[in-house]
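Translate structure to sequence.
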């Protein structure tokens, strides 16, 4: 397309996703794999649990020995020893015989001969008294592992026992390719004995803000200066999308400095995001610094600066840079324009690098909850901030349409989409909503 062409939102996104490829898979230790996407099925090699074990602290018994037991006429059993978690069972491979019981702890293997576990609260705990609240610690009362126990209730076979393979059996599919590795998935992988897993790594995103007027939060503002909020917001957004994000402090409006900064960051970047300096002003440093790259430095590289039929976020840039042709997305500098552009274009690119199939935010349909009609420029797709009420099926605009209204953005949990052919949206209009949370 020529430099004067107006791109649609869909065309720009299609161009980006057509150029971005998922990262190559690597083998990672479990503690490094959180947030990554599996590239292969994981099949279970051992049963989980690997043996029948107790789900309670209590006594391992034979069912027939406690049949008909109650508090008035308890079953009196001989306690033959302890079975602790981590042990192989009763000493000497002893089994539970008729009229016997073994003290057993949660997670301990069910000893041979036993068919069920009686919770300690259903017994006298070996004290000869009424129902027990807890077991005495073995180290405090070793004699508690012997003697007699009175059982006050009957039990069925398998009660309070986690059967071998009741979670998963060898050969079962534990996790399928495409799964995102979160805490529960890491727990499962560890439980079945996997120490490593093959995944696509989390993309490394470098965020660079530009502008001589930008000052870091915590510093004093001089005349004409503002705090750099974009780099903080976009770095957080990149992490929220699943990336490892690096924030680079604001770069002044100097093309050589910006070019050098980007080149220095390429060693740790799978994608670079800049904000500011992409419009038509005399000091739009990103355009000045990156427009000639494709012709002079790296064949096949280059950033294309274009205008999109959207509001906010009309000026955009996309291309690749450096010897590895690292993708670079150049976003506008106004805070709302920057964040909306990230959600529409950068987040899908990050999710594509991760190897995910569903790269976009979820959407919904909602009735416009407003006192008056909302106007929208003809020929542009407008994205307004809003709060979405799923139960009521409505969305309420927050703040105005200005691209600098960051306070309203902080209150929003959705973007209200007004299509290119809509110039006025009346109250109650059915609208598309992009959900941000």
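Result:
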């Amino acid at each position: 397309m020529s430099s004067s062409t107006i791109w649609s939102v869909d065309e720009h996104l299609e161009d980006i996703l057509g150029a971005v490829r998922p990262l190559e898979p690597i083998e990672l230790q479990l503690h490094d794999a959180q947030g990554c996407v599996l590239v292969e099925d994981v099949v279970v090699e051992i049963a989980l649990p690997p043996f029948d074990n107790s789900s309670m602290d209590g006594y391992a018994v034979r069912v027939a020995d406690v049949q008909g037991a109650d508090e008035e006429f308890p079953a009196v059993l001989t306690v033959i020893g302890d079975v602790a978690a981590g042990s192989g069972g009763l000493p000497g491979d002893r089994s539970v015989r008729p009229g016997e019981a073994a003290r057993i702890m949660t997670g301990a293997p069910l000893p041979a001969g036993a068919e069920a576990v009686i919770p300690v609260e259903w017994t006298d705990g070996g004290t000869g008294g009424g129902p027990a609240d807890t077991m005495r610690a073995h180290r405090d009362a070793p004699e508690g592992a012997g003697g007699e126990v009175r059982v006050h209730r009957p039990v069925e076979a398998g009660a309070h026992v986690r059967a071998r393979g009741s979670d998963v059996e060898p050969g079962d599919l534990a996790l399928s390719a495409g799964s995102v590795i979160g805490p529960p998935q890491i727990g499962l992988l560890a439980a079945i004995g996997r120490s490593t897993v093959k995944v696509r790594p989390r993309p490394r995103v470098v965020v660079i803000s530009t502008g001589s007027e930008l000052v870091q939060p915590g510093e004093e503002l001089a005349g004409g200066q503002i705090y750099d909020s974009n780099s903080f917001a976009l770095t957080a957004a990149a992490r929220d999308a699943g990336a490892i994000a690096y924030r680079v402090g604001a770069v002044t409006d100097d093309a050589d400095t910006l070019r050098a900064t980007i080149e220095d960051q390429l060693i740790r970047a799978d994608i670079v995001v800049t904000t500011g300096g992409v419009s038509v002003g005399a000091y739009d440093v990103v355009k000045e610094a990156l427009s000639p790259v494709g012709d002079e430095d790296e064949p096949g590289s280059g950033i294309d600066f274009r205008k999109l039929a959207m509001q906010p976020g009309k000026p955009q840039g996309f291309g690749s840079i450096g010897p590895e042709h690292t993708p670079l997305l150049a976003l506008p500098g106004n805070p709302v324009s920057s964040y909306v552009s990230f959600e529409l274009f950068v987040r899908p690119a990050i999710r594509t690098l991760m190897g995910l199939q569903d790269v976009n935010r979820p959407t919904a349909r909602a009735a416009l909850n407003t006192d008056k009609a909302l106007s929208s420029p003809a020929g542009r797709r407008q994205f307004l901030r809003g709060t979405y009420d799923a139960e009521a099926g409505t969305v309420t605009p927050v703040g105005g349409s200005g691209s600098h209204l960051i306070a309203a953005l902080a209150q929003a949990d959705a973007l209200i989409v007004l299509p290119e052919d809509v110039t006025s949206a009346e109250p109650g209009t059915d609208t598309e909503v992009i959900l941000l949370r």
